[in-house]
Automatic annotation (TrEMBL):
KW Transmembrane helix (keyword) present: yes
Organism, as annotated: Aeribacillus pallidus
Keywords: Membrane, Transmembrane, Transmembrane helix
Transmembrane segments: 36-56, 76-94, 106-128
One Pfam family here: Ion_trans_2
Potassium channel domain segment(s): 56-128
InterPro entries: K_chnl_dom
Protein name per Swiss-Prot or TrEMBL: Potassium channel domain-containing protein
Coiled coil: none
Length: 134
């Protein structure tokens, strides 16, 4: 079940990025639609990784620690904590109140890399579009 959910999440993330780049190809880059799509891509990654953390936590794979102890609590508490950790990791804030361990470290590394790469891609694409129009 977790593999199916993970595959579905990855499919949604890839399709979100694909949609963003097809919108960029159609015309002016800095439109409301494009800003909305960029926000949607970030939200998709935030939710996608948050759900991955939650699924692993719920299936008994402790990957996050709060105050040095593995994450525990109700489903709703774990959901909000996993989404919070996902946001803090994606936006490279890293407060340190929740730390990954085990396989969670590698998942967080991938998410942090995506958080660094996305703005770079957006800026590079904008500069390329500006140069093409001149």
């Amino acid at each position: 079940m977790a593999i199916v959910v993970g595959t579905g999440i990855m499919f949604c993330l890839v399709m979100s990025i694909r949609t963003m780049f097809s919108a960029v190809k159609r015309g002016t880059f800095l439109t409301f639609e494009t800003v909305y799509l960029i926000a949607l891509v970030y939200a998709s990654f935030l939710l996608g990784f948050g759900v991955i953390y939650l699924i692993l936590t719920q299936y008994g794979f402790p990957i996050l620690a709060e105050s040095g102890r593995p994450l525990y609590g109700t489903y709703l508490e774990n959901l909000t904590t996993c989404l919070y950790f996902s946001a803090v990791t994606l936006f490279s804030v890293g407060y340190g109140d929740i730390t990954p361990f085990g396989i969670g470290r590698w998942i967080a590394i991938v998410q942090a890399m995506i958080g660094y790469i996305l703005p770079t891609v957006v800026v590079a694409k904008t500069m390329i579009d500006i140069e093409k129009k001149q």
